[in-house]
Amino acid sequence: MCHVKRFIERWAADDRFRQALRHDPQAAARRWHLTIDPEAIRPLWDLPPEATDWRHWDMGACDAYPLAAAYLAFRRVRVEAAEALRDISPALPAYRRWRARQVARCHSVFPRAFADALPHAPFACELSLGCSVGCWFCGVGADRLTAHAWYGNGQQWRDILAVLRGLTGSDAGARGLVYWASDPLDHPQFEHFARDFTQAFGAPPHTTTALATQDLERTRRLLPHATAASPLGVRLSVLSVAMLDRIHAAFTAESLAHVELVPQTPGSVLRKVPVGKARLRLTATSPAPAGRVPLNEGAPSIACVSGFLINLVSGHVRLITPAPCSDREPDGYRTIARGEFATAADLEPLVAQMVAEHMRVLPAEHVPLRVVDGLTVRERDDGFELASAHARHVVAGGPLTRGLGQRLAGGCTVAGLRQWVTSFGLPAEVADTWVIELLDSGCLA
Known about the structure:
By secondary structure, the chain is α/β, with parallel strands linked by helices. The chain has three domains: 2-80, no CATH class; 93-210 and 264-358, no CATH class; 376-440, no CATH class. 41% of the residues lie in helices and 13% in strands. The chain is built from 17 helices and twelve strands. The strands form four sheets. Strands 1-7-8-9 form a four-stranded mixed sheet. Strand 7 (305-311) and strand 8 (316-322) form a beta hairpin. Helix 9 crosses helix 10, helix 9 runs parallel beside helix 14 and helix 16 (414-422) packs across helix 17 (429-440). The radius of gyration is 24 Å and the shape is globular.
């Protein structure tokens, strides 16, 4: 399977290889030193122009090609392992419920396939301020690299990890990230931070880097973090065909078996997500360095954290969650709360306060309730519905329920709802139950 994977990596990243395949498959495989017979996996690469990536593979056609079918099974196992990791929730009950609400909300406002794939990692820690790579399409709008947080004796970092572990537990915390609008391999001491993370959570941090070819031996030491049980453990962003050539020359197909190569080359089949820097560049007069760029309109964000975003250089901490890219949220995530810390002793009460204020079972009674952006309230004879292009939530129950929909559209509060339901002789708890159910189903922000 490793060599089929290598063939697909070349196919996905290199448009010259795809052209050569169509002309003479065997000669193309020889030219690029690929050991797989292209005819044995034809359904994986012989696609019509309008279906140019792996999401359009014909599963039925692959049944007649055992090697292609085996590769699909290999990928399916990887997807299932990633899904199992995604289903691990934080240990703190309030955090766990809040995360579940964000998962439900994302299914209300994102395309289903995209929402299903979101990992909702519990936190991301940036070890640097900015990123040296400068990708024009960066979906989280990374600035240029200006500073690092130095490891020192490591005590500050270990104390921060202890705070996070208290919120998430070790299993969910192991899914945390040590990068965001930064590249982990920019930091000369990344391995020290990663070692402490592994000791705190029992697994190395998931790592995505666009600097795999800057120091090949350093990258080689990173590869064992990718395993069958951790299929997203190491992801290498491939920015050019020359970079892919160097990666394939330096590392065997077997050593990259569980490493995800993300093809970001100009000729990639992977469509750019129009968020962050890409959104700015693609709406400018000169859209992109390579001219016209195919876009993935079904992915309105690349944000993958529902939890805390912490920068160790600036001392900034934010509570964030994915949101459709917009003028208000140009980088594809919503900031719910923010603060600053100097030490882990400052961080602990700060995040505890964010949990207490923003991960409540019920919102504060005088705070206006807000329907999730992207959902529209529509009246029905038997109640109301909340609908978007991707989901529809029906709340039935007659005239009283229809009145609830009207009040939600008007920005009512929990206190106001309680007063309203008691005017009909109902207990105030009825209003609380309605609000909790709407929050749990992802309809209220």
